[in-house]
Amino acid sequence: MGLKSLISYGFLILPAAVTIGVLLGLQTYRESQGLSGPFTSNKVETNTYCQLAFGITPATGGQQYTLNPNQWGVTEDTTGSALCMNVTTNANGSYPTNITAPAWSITWQYPQGSDDQPVHAFPNIQIDRSDIFPIEINSVSAVNFAAEWAYGAGETLPTTTDVTALTAAGLNANVAIDMFIDSDPNAATSTVDAKYEVMIWLADFGAATQPIGLADGAVKTADINGTTFSLYYGTNSLSQKVLTWVATGTVQNIDTDFGPLLQGLTGIGGPATSDYLGYMAFGSETLYSSTNVTLYVPSLSMEVVPK
């Protein structure tokens, strides 16, 4: 090949090399921001899961989440009941931020259970990060939580929570954050083996939806973004110490740091700040409803930030 041919060939491959370099750089940048690469599908899919328990882990370029219908209280004797979870995902794994979760909803109906086992399910979405959990409470800088949600009667995705309609539907359920803590880092990641369960109720519906320890009264209160949360303390059927922060009123739209609610619990029988937080999820404890009801969570992000 002559000199002119080599020069011509060089100019021919130079634009291609530059283009590939730019695209690879663009893909690296987008992935670092939790966005999709430039060569992936933009398809949006909604899938339905009606299993008693099934882990759903959508592909993402950011923080991993796992969703689960988690109908742990349903037995072969439970009749006239059903729960289905709908999860809307982006095929390219791209979401607005690194910690944005997929949109999801549940539609369900259960009969009233027994007094000693009133909960049928806790359909939820869990932070799925082994690089964060377990983490000592005193090493947590913030527990950031931002969500928009609505509960409605029927199967249509609600945009607002109509308490009157939900009362007519006989809804008994809550909307809550669930966390598990233990001095043993391995036990802290287990919802069964952890010594402590700390819940934050953003709403509760129906007279049967009561935090453990309600009869003994609140042991303390705290203010988060202008909302008063009352803390109740008791022991569940697994002998776990349960500490439940219950909001005054219904908190549908929120963007805050719940980290302060993990502090100062030792003196009332709760975990020490040297104990490990091993699990965090958001969902609804479903007790019963006489007709179908739907919880819709179109916007959600959760993040445990280490110091």
UniProtKB/TrEMBL annotation:
<keyword id="KW-0119">Carbohydrate metabolism</keyword>
<comment type="similarity">
    <text>Belongs to the glycosyl hydrolase 12 (cellulase H) family.</text>
</comment>
<keyword id="KW-0812">Transmembrane</keyword>
<protein>
    <recommendedName>
        <fullName>xyloglucan-specific endo-beta-1,4-glucanase</fullName>
        <ecNumber>3.2.1.151</ecNumber>
    </recommendedName>
</protein>
<dbReference type="InterPro" id="IPR013319">
    <property type="entry name" value="GH11/12"/>
</dbReference>
<keyword id="KW-0624">Polysaccharide degradation</keyword>
<keyword id="KW-0326">Glycosidase</keyword>
<dbReference type="GO" id="GO:0008810">
    <property type="term" value="F:cellulase activity"/>
</dbReference>
<dbReference type="GO" id="GO:0000272">
    <property type="term" value="P:polysaccharide catabolic process"/>
</dbReference>
<feature type="transmembrane region" description="Helical">
    <location>
        <begin position="6"/>
        <end position="26"/>
    </location>
</feature>
<dbReference type="GO" id="GO:0033946">
    <property type="term" value="F:xyloglucan-specific endo-beta-1,4-glucanase activity"/>
</dbReference>
<keyword id="KW-0378">Hydrolase</keyword>
<dbReference type="InterPro" id="IPR013320">
    <property type="entry name" value="ConA-like_dom_sf"/>
</dbReference>
<keyword id="KW-1133">Transmembrane helix</keyword>
<dbReference type="InterPro" id="IPR002594">
    <property type="entry name" value="GH12"/>
</dbReference>
<keyword id="KW-0472">Membrane</keyword>
<dbReference type="Pfam" id="PF01670">
    <property type="entry name" value="Glyco_hydro_12"/>
</dbReference>
